[in-house]
Amino acid sequence: MIAPMASFPDLARRVRALPAAAPLADVLPHAWIVGGAVRDLLLGGAPADLDVVIEGDAVEAAGRLCAALDGSLTVHDRFGTATVEAAGHVYDLATARAETYARPGALPEVRPGTIAEDLARRDFTVNAIAVALDGRVAAAPCAFEDLDARVLRVLHERSFLDDPTRLLRLVRYATRMRFAVERSTTALADAAVADGALATVTPTRVGSELRLLLREPSALDALAWVGSWEGALGVSLAVDAPLAERALALLPDDGRADLLLLASACRSVAGARLSAWLDALGFCARDRDTVVACAQAKGIEGRLSRASRPSEIAAAVRGAPLEVVALAGALGAAGVARAWIEELRHVRLDIDGADLLAAGVPQGERIGRGLAAALRARLDGEAPDRDAQLAVALATCVP
User: How would you class 252 by CB atoms within 10 Å of its CB: exposed for 0-12, middle for 13-18, buried for 19 or more?
Assistant: First the structure.
């Protein structure tokens, strides 16, 4: 439905008052602000970035907006969309479109459409509200009622079959916003999972949605929900919430909570299978290797539990990512893991290879052995200053 400005005067005014919306009014007065920005505004937020739908050429409109705001423009030719970054805001512009699905899980076939058709293709009613800068309001049936009731509802009964990645979005939105799931939507989601709908989607699309889910503050709850789907993602996820919470408590700010959470749920998956699964989902090599190493953290936990001296702790975790150490600590070596994470990993020598070369040590592996010995002594408090470290290193280097 599309209503005149008089029907929703306050909503239209509130949208136009957003700092990100104000610059649009002069350039694109008939543009529609859609989706999450409108939803979050109605929930009391103040979105800084906007999804903008144009009933026309979105790329041409983005060019005009970029020029007017002296921003930067990125055109996504494959999708006919564009992103403008200007004045601290991000604008994602798309042409209003209608779409059909040739088969379950396939990418949609799209054509330019109206705003009503564009809203009808969206995932949930609460994301199917649009406000034009000229005051018009469009919304899917039940959209305002569902937002007021804090309920997630799909727009039609084939929603999860057409695009099974909506199952992961359902979990992400429900856990993030603490929304309930409408009864028929729950039944449709359960049926889609049971029928293997996610297997009809390319793994990389599933991986993209899973990565978004893992980055949410509510990721642990969301992962537990997905884990209840009994292998629907391709492997069985076993979420141990207390273990994950202990590991997260040890993880420092420069660690990756998303990778740690996923790994904690994959500890029963064999390393080769886990690696292949993560590759199929499109994880980059570094993230894949971190998850696989974390999932096998029990071995490091054993070495850490046997370590007593700081140098032994350092040796036990040598080369391991922070996430592995945090999970090993959560498995039973919390004290020594915390010592490494909070203190020992920051210990540095006051000497380097140039100092050994200057002292007459020839280039080669002896320099590495000398520095390693000096670091062990530094960690154990036996070489607190430069002179002591140099003496240890030289004593190790000399045949």
Answer: exposed
